[in-house]
User: Fold this.
Amino acid sequence: MHAEMTKREGCKGCSASVHADEEQLQRILAKLALHPGDCVPDAQYAARLDICGECPSLQYGTTCAHCGCFVRVRAKLAAKECPHPKGSRWQ
Assistant:
């Protein structure tokens, strides 16, 4: 393996990895599905993900550069907003 592929990139605020594979994300999302009252409707979730997908602050296709969260998780939660420093991009 290349050195850059074996290097673990950590979150700015903690030692957690900023990378997540599909299996990890699906496990988290499955747990959220057990609490539908905490989640936004599917159409709103899709709209949020579309906005995040176009954001230049999306890193590795999974992680927000502003807060270090996995965008697919944050976008699902009703109580969360886009953490963009110039204001939420989720309208």
Notes: The first helix runs from residue 3 to 6. Helices lie at 3-6, 22-33, 42-54, 71-74.
